[in-house]
Structure formats: structure tokens, C-alpha cells
Specification:
With 136 residues, the protein is mainly alpha-helical. It has one domain. It is 79% helix and 0% strand. The chain has five helices and no strands. The chain is globular, with a radius of gyration of 17 Å.
């Protein structure tokens, strides 16, 4: 029996995954200029471990990741409709998040680090699975 088999556990895993991603990106962005790097390394490693753990049990073990990354010709009509709805939701949310971040960087006249960019790439990939896992 999978650890994240029930709906409540799956939603908890999804929320923990998104929170650990946000915590990792924010802690890196706010603490990357400090002189003491040990606290930053420990904080980011902890957030990364939580992120990987919740990814494995929430998206990989449940099959959500594989379903949202299937090739379109291999989907039947119902799977295509579900996948299309999840992708439309993910595209809408991702567009809003990226535009808000671009506005933030433009107003503060700063450049993004590599960690927020990598976080956005990961976020874009898990959003369809987040939608499917939440609507399950």
C-alpha cells in the first residue's frame, strides 16, 4: 500500500511539496547575500530533502507525473480531456506567477538567481499533476 494512497495524504503531500519549493526559493533568494553560508546550506538542504521526498510519494508513486507527461497519441478521449484540462489550468497559473515575478524583478531592478529559475521550471512541470491530484 502506498503511503500517499488516500486523498488527504495526497493533498498533504502536494501542499508540502509546494511549500518546500517556495521555502527553498525564498530562503535562497533572501539569504544568498549573507556572510554565514552554513545556515543557508542547512536550510536549503532540508527544503530540498522535503521537496524530493514529497515529489516521490505524491507524484511519482501515484503515477500523476507519468500521466501528465504521456505522449498525446497514447491517450484515449477521456484521458485527453482530463490532461487537457490540467494543462490549461497549469498554463494559466504559471503565466500569472511568471508575470508577477517579472513585475517584481522590474520594480526592484534586480536579477533572478538560478534557484528561482530552476524552481519555476520544476513548478511548471508539476502544476498539471497538482491539479489532477487535487481534483482526484
Amino acid at each position: 500500500m502506498s503511503l500517499f494512497n488516500s486523498s488527504i495524504r495526497l493533498k498533504t503531500g502536494i501542499v508540502l511539496n509546494l511549500l518546500s519549493l517556495a521555502f527553498l526559493v525564498l530562503s535562497w533568494s533572501t539569504n544568498s547575500y549573507t556572510k554565514t553560508k552554513l545556515g543557508l546550506i542547512i536550510t536549503c538542504l532540508f527544503a530540498l530533502l522535503v521537496l524530493l521526498y514529497t515529489y516521490y510519494y505524491s507524484f511519482w508513486q501515484t503515477g500523476l507525473w507519468k500521466f501528465t507527461h504521456k505522449i498525446v497519441p497514447k491517450l484515449d478521449e477521456r484521458e485527453y480531456a482530463v490532461n487537457n484540462r490540467a494543462l490549461r489550468f497549469a498554463y494559466s497559473v504559471f503565466t500569472i506567477v511568471v508575470l508577477a515575478l517579472l513585475m517584481y524583478y522590474a520594480l526592484t531592478k534586480t536579477l533572478p538567481h538560478m534557484v528561482p529559475v530552476a524552481g519555476l521550471i520544476y513548478f511548471a512541470h508539476i502544476l498539471p499533476a497538482v491539479y489532477l491530484g487535487w481534483k482526484r
